[in-house]
Amino acid sequence: MFRKFKQAIHWREEQQKKPGVDLSSALYEQLKYFRLPLLLIQIFLLIGTLGFFWLEDYSLIDAFFQTAYTFTNTGFGSYKENEFGTITIIFTTIIMFAGAGVIAFSVATVVSIIGNGTLIRLIKEKKMVQKIVRLRNHYVVCYHNEYTVELSKHFRESQIPFVVVDNSPNFEEEAKKYKYPYYIQGDPHTDVVILRTHLASAKGVVTFSKTSADNIALIVSVRLFEKELARRPYYIIASADTQEDIERLKKLGANSVVSPTKLMAQRVSAMAVRPDMENLLEQFAYSKDTSLDLEEVVVPKYSWMVLKKLKDANFRSITRVSVVGITQKDGTYFPMPSGDTIISSECKLLMIGTGKDIRETKRMILRRNKPEELKMTKEC
C-alpha cells in the first residue's frame, strides 16, 4: 500500500528532481577563505582556556568564559582579574591583543568575500537552479534583447514556462527589471549552463543572438546534448538577418528561423497595400481575447481519415471547424482545399475555429476507426 501511495504522489520522481549541475563545489571554494579566521579563533580560545585553567586554577567553564570575553574585548572584571599574578597579566594581555587582531582579520575577510559578490551570486544561482529543476516542457530563451523582452510577455500570458540565459555582466538587473521568472547568467552554449537550465526536461530552445556565430554554437551544442540523452528532438527557433544565415541555421538543425527584418518588411508591405487589414492579423492570430484559433493538425498514419475525402470528415457540421489549408508531407501547400481533396498520411490540416472545437477535431482525427457521430450524420 505504501508503494502505491508513493507512486500516486510521484514520490520517486520528486526524489530524482536534482539539479543537473552541483554548485556546492563552487560555494565551498568561496567559503574556504573563512577557514583561517575560524581556525585562529578556535586556537586562541583553546590556548586561553587551558592557560587560565592552569594559571588561576579555574574550572574549564570558567576558564572558557574568561577567555571568551578577554579575547573579544567585550568586558573585564567578571572574575578575579585584580588577583592575577604577573604571568597571568602578561598572558591576558597577549590574549587581548591576539583577539583584536584575529577579529579585525576575520571582519576584513568577511567584508572582502561579501564585497566581491561571488558568494552571494552563487547562493542566488543555487536557489534559482533548484527552482528551474522543477520545470517540465519549458523553453530556454537565449540572449537578452528587445525580442526576448517581448517574447517573455507573450510566454507569461500564455502560461508557457521559460528560462532566460545571457552572459552580460548586468543581466541579473535586467532580468529583475523585466520580471523574468527564471534566469541564468552565463554563455548559453556551454555544458554548465545547459545543465543549469535543466535542458533535459525542456521542450525547445529559442536563440535571439544578433551574432550568427552565437546561434550556430548554441544549435550545435543543443543537438549534441540531445544525442547524448537519446531523447526526442528539441524544437529550436533562431533569428537571423540574412537569407544566407537562415539557410545555414536550418541546415545545422534549427526547426524555424525568423528574420525580424523580413517580417517587418512583410508587415509594412501588407499595411501599404491594404491599410484596412492592418490590425486583422494582430487581432486574430496574436490577441488572447479572440475566441478563434488557427492551428495545424497532423494526420497520423493510423488515422481513419487517411485516403479519405475531406468532405467525409464533415468537420464544419460536427465540430464547427473549417480546414483552410493542407500541407502535404513533401511540403506542398494547398490553400482552401475542396471537399473532394484526398487526405494523405502525415499531412497537416490548417484549421480555424475555437480552441475547444479544434481540440475535439484533433480527437476525431487521432481515432483509428471512423467516429460514431459521422456514421449517424451519414445515416441522417
UniProtKB/TrEMBL annotation:
GO biological process, one term: potassium ion transport
Name the UniProt record assigns to this protein: Potassium channel protein
Family matches, as SUPFAM superfamilies: NAD(P)-binding Rossmann-fold domains, TrkA C-terminal domain-like, Voltage-gated potassium channels
Keyword Iron-sulfur: no
Transmembrane intervals: 33-55, 87-120
Organism from which the protein derives: Helicobacter cholecystus
Source taxon at top rank: Bacteria
Keyword tags: Ion channel, Ion transport, Membrane, Transmembrane, Transmembrane helix, Transport
Domain (RCK C-terminal): residue spans on this chain: 282-367
Keyword Protein biosynthesis: no
GO MF term (any one): monoatomic cation transmembrane transporter activity
